[in-house]
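Open question from group meeting: does this chain pack into something compact, or does most of it stay loose? Before anyone orders reagents, we agreed to write out a predicted structure and look at it together. Recording both the input and the output here so the notebook holds the full record.
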Amino acid sequence: MFENWKLLVVGAGVMGSGIAQLYACKGFQVALYDKFPEQLDRAKQLIANNMENLIKEGLATQEEAEKTRTLISYETDLEKCAPQADLVLESVFENADVKRETFAQLDKLCASDCILCSNTSASNIFEIAPVSHPERQIITHYFNPPFIMDLVEVVMGPKTSEETLAKVKAFLIQVGKEPAVLKEYIPGFIVNRIATAITREAGYMVTQGWVSAQDIDSAIRNTSGIRYAFEGPMALYDIVGWDLTTSVSVGVHKSLCNDTEIGNSLGKELIAKGELGLKSGKGVFDYTGVDPQQFMNERAAKIIKMVKAIKEL
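Structure tokens returned:
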């Protein structure tokens, strides 16, 4: 159904590059656009590195890597590539003005039946970047690395058509993705909304002096981290029993962090000290002497192994 579709990815950062790689690996012709040539050069190298990692893990062959390379064109002229696209995947910087300008350009240049997708992880694209055909605008939020992680959050706008939703879902399923649909925009969508609640509580427990960051991570890795690979929280509560879980939660709810300010106290403390995590060399944990690219390569390899193991369950 979609074999002849031409795709346009706008924004050649880590996510944009990964999305372009994903669809080229599936045999689609992909134009990867960025207005900065040096960013396209970085994207080309990043994709090459990613393909090398997939080959090492047995998820791609040298021939498939070469075919993927030939299916991606690197573009700096949006007027050239936008009119040819059947589906656009916007993945530019999370800034309202940048998003608005990008969609305004796409709205003028793309064909009347082109589907306009945004990979935003936070923005209400339907409010900040309106288009003349809102029935064709939709959020498709991928997770890093997008060529490995199967989930794509699909978020409808107030005027997104059921036809657009059906096409996007069918397209994602055809390439092996698992779409999770939100019928309307809510901040954080599904995953980041739940992750924010977890991180807020974890940070609160650390700042209260109740537990160390190391033990927080150990506790989650060795319980929920294992179970959530094959059953979500709704299924887990079904198994345990809602009578028991509800009874337990009565006492817990009253003691939970209820801070509604932006960020959490632990995050604010770390930011004030310039301890931003891996990229600054220190966050909750110390990354002194750690090569960030090597760290991310090793992390991607672990994700690949986990995904392969889960598929065997």
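Observations to bring back to the group:
The chain has a mean pLDDT of 94.
Residues 6-182 form a domain with the Rossmann fold fold (CATH 3.40.50.720).
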